[in-house]
């Protein structure tokens, strides 16, 4: 009997495990399909995901131990958790720690995405608040799209007819329009930043316990996070109370944010069961999904106009111009029986070919031929060494004969030309005393011929040296002839490089991107100082909000410098410095020292280099 009962219990357990496995597969594929649809149609994700959410909720009813799978995403600011130590049950610790990391990193990733999205829209609205009334009116009329342009114009005409023309009324309406969006987005950012700071501080407070004994310390942390969701619900809920009469945003507060509550668990016990932990994790992921839906709707209703809406007048003019050009081309095309376009194309083709031949091909061929001719004719010159040597030998023989006749003695074959030339000059000076007589009977004519030969040798020697100089610089002249084409190619490459690297974000590689990274450091430094000031004044909520904004800036910096720091070999110490800046229990003085060291030592922050 006992064996039969034991068999039935095993069968029930196997059935339960199979049901859990099926529930996990259904949940995984339903969420995968929803994420794919969200990536393809981000604007209609909230409406199109209702059916999939219902389908996913049915999947959760099939197994209690199923929770949302993690989504692939980029790397965010690391959690303030140390690495697990090598213990005997290290495999169990790593398994539990990986689950802890998965849940916490998913929470941080969702919050960082929302903060980045809200901050992007706030950076557009905040400068408009401080702008002049003329700039606000220009935005309201010309930078919100054609529908807003027509509606605003009609409203202005109705207002001018009823109450008369009043620029003050229009300015007040524009200021209220911009201020409402700024206030809503600022409150959302404050609530989410506070939630982020509270979660991060709780993780930092129990970090070592989460790594050493995650099975015992993770359940209390889940309970705290669920309580923080309740605080976030209360902080966002006051947005419904600040709605003004005649709001320019329709349906902004049509549905409140209501998170699911975690089931009541006996927290006095020593340990939660796996079922209770899975239920708490499921509640967290469902709350994250509700938060995603709520924030996406709120931000979409208060977001900045798209680029197409901001520059719709420019785009409209371009479309009108293209339409006129199309009509003009159609009038001169074959469709209307006109050969004008064919003739223009033929003339343009001939002109292009002629320009290419005259200004590109022929100069390049000339340079090529010049270079090859330089090397082919390098052995040929105006004066050769053999010719100069023949002239020198002839002069030597003439000097030797003259010296032997004059001195009446035998000179050696290797006698110095300089000595014999002195004999010739002495005799020449004596012969010049009686030039006519010595020209006919003396040695004057012989001496003159020797001097002519000497002059010929000097000229040939000079020409030989000049020819050698020209040969040595022929390649330089050829390079100078090719320099214009080289500089033209270099300019084209620089223009292409500037076009490819026109990314001005902090993740870019130009000087502007480098300046953005330095501004991020400045923003982090200001945030740390403001956080410490709020702590000293006892402003708990303000300090938590400021700390959350600092974490958001650190996440942006982490993502901006990761690729560059890995390429330059600075990533190891730079990553640790960014993590240290996010530790709430670290002294502010030390954080400021770290920021100063990053500015001085990091090549990716130096303004004198282009990364």
TrEMBL record:
One of its GO terms (cellular component) is mitochondrial outer membrane. It is found in: Mitochondrion membrane. The keyword Transmembrane helix applies. It comes from the Eukaryota. The keyword Amino-acid biosynthesis does not apply. It comes from Salix purpurea. Pfam families: NCA2 (PF08637). This is NUCLEAR CONTROL OF ATPASE PROTEIN 2. Keywords: Membrane, Mitochondrion, Transmembrane, Transmembrane helix.
């Amino acid at each position: 009997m006992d064996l039969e009962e034991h068999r039935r219990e095993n069968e029930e357990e196997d059935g339960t495990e199979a049901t859990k496995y099926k529930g996990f597969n259904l949940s995984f594929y339903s969420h995968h399909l929803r994420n794919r649809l969200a990536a393809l149609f981000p604007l209609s994700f909230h409406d199109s995901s209702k059916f999939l959410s219902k389908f996913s909720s049915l999947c959760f009813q099939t197994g209690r131990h199923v929770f949302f799978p993690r989504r692939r995403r980029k790397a965010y600011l690391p959690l303030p958790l140390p690495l697990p130590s090598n213990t005997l049950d290290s495999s169990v610790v790593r398994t539990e720690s990986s689950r802890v990391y998965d849940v916490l990193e998913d929470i941080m990733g969702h919050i960082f995405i929302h903060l980045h999205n809200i901050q992007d829209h706030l950076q557009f609205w905040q400068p408009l608040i401080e702008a002049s009334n003329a700039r606000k009116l220009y935005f309201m009329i010309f930078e919100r799209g054609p529908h807003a342009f027509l509606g605003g114009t009609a409203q202005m005409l109705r207002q001018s007819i009823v109450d008369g023309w009043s620029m003050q009324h229009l300015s007040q309406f524009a200021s209220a329009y911009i201020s409402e969006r700024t206030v809503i987005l600022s409150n959302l950012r404050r609530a989410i930043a506070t939630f982020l700071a509270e979660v991060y501080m709780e993780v930092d407070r129990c970090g070592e316990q989460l790594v050493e004994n995650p099975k015992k310390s993770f359940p209390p942390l889940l309970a705290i996070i669920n309580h923080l969701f309740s605080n976030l619900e209360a902080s966002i809920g006051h947005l419904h109370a600040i709605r003004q009469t005649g709001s320019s945003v329709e349906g902004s507060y049509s549905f409140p944010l209501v998170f699911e509550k975690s089931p009541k668990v006996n927290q006095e016990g020593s340990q939660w069961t796996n079922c209770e932990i899975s239920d708490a994790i499921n509640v967290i992921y469902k709350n994250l999904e509700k938060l995603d839906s709520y924030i996406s709707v709120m931000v979409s209703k208060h977001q900045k106009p798209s680029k197409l809406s901001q520059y719709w007048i420019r785009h409209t003019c371009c479309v009108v111009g293209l339409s006129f050009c199309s009509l003009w081309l159609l009038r001169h095309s074959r469709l209307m029986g006109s050969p004008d376009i064919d003739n223009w194309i033929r003339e343009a083709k001939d002109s292009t070919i002629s320009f290419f031949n005259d200004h590109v091909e022929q100069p390049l061929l000339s340079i090529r031929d010049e270079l090859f001719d330089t090397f082919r004719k390098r052995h040929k010159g105006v004066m050769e060494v053999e010719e100069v040597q023949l002239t020198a030998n002839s002069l030597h023989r003439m000097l030797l004969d003259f010296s032997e006749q004059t001195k009446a003695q035998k000179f050696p074959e290797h006698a110095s030309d300089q000595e014999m030339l002195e004999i010739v000059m002495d005799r020449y000076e004596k012969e010049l005393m009686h030039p006519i007589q010595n020209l006919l009977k003396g040695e004057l004519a012989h001496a003159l011929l020797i001097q002519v030969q000497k002059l010929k040798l000097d000229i040939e020697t000079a020409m030989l040296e000049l020819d050698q100089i020209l040969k040595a610089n022929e390649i330089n002249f050829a390079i100078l002839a090719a320099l214009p084409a080289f500089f033209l190619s270099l300019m084209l490459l620089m223009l292409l490089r500037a076009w490819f690297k026109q990314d001005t974000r902090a993740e870019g590689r130009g000087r502007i991107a480098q300046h953005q990274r330095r501004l991020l450091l400045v923003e982090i430094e200001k945030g740390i100082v403001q956080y410490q000031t709020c702590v000293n004044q006892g402003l708990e909520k303000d300090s938590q909000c400021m700390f959350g904004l600092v974490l958001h800036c650190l996440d942006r910096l982490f993502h901006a410098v990761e690729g560059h720091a890995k390429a330059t070999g600075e990533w190891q110490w730079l990553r640790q410095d960014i993590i240290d800046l996010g530790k709430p229990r670290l002294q502010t003085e030390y954080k400021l020292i770290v920021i100063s060291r990053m500015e001085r030592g990091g090549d990716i922050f130096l303004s004198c280099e282009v990364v």
